[in-house]
Amino acid sequence: MSLSAIFETAGVRGFLHARRLGSPGEVGVDADAPVVLASVVKVALAYEFARQVAAGQLDPTDRVHATAADRLGGTGSAGFADDVSYSLRDAALLALSISDNTAADLLFDRVGVANVRSLLAELGLSRTSVIGAPRDLLATILEDQAARRPLRALDPLRTSASTPREMTSLLAALWADPGPGARVLGWMTAQVSWHRLAAGFPPEVAVAAKTGTLPGIRNEIGVVTYPDGAAYAVAVFTVAEAETLRRPDIDRAIGDAARTAVEALRS
């Protein structure tokens, strides 16, 4: 099945870019269109954190304290009933492995939103924008809901956004960096969600990935590595007209599209 047919069958508009790392080969579907990042933004956050640690600017064992005022609701410490503390490096792990929004907020506080933006500029990702931490994104949602207006969080021109091509460029930078980049990919390997990119590949293919989800939006970016050593950066973004909590068909489409793109590159 073609990439366009995979997305059409799932009832979504799909955006994709895949590249073979260390090679000029690439496959794309609307690869330069603006897309909403959602929690995919945590990859850039974790990379800037790892770089600051490597530069001696942050101590990864420093602790942060998540209180009731910090909890946004959701997975991990964001949904805890009680206060908890953990190290900065564990905050990065929580942000990438289970998409803990409170851990990401606390990490953004230490790393600095401006520094994440500077990293993106340094990497030449001029079409990637970060409006702030997860709490800032939630604030726009609550404001827009109160005013009964369209959510900025779902508009790539008014929220944290990028393009599929720029996201595979970010992944390529991680893959080429044996220090901080490798550390981030290690955290991404620990992601507990295996129903999107990873579901499209056989178990012998290693997957380091990060999801992003908002109403009507399901995304995932990641690096897939085959037993022969060939590695591929893949970014898949989808937009649906209607949203339900469970859309396994869209999740499967993300994995199927990723595999189809990578198989085209391998052939």
From TrEMBL:
Keyword RNA-binding: no
Record Gene3D superfamilies: DD-peptidase/beta-lactamase superfamily
Superkingdom in the source lineage: Bacteria
Matching Pfam families: Beta-lactamase2
Ranges for domain Beta-lactamase class A catalytic: 17-238
Keyword field: Hydrolase
Molecular function per GO: hydrolase activity
PANTHER family assigned: BETA-LACTAMASE, BETA-LACTAMASE-TYPE TRANSPEPTIDASE FOLD CONTAINING PROTEIN
Protein name as catalogued: Serine hydrolase
Organism, as annotated: Amycolatopsis nalaikhensis
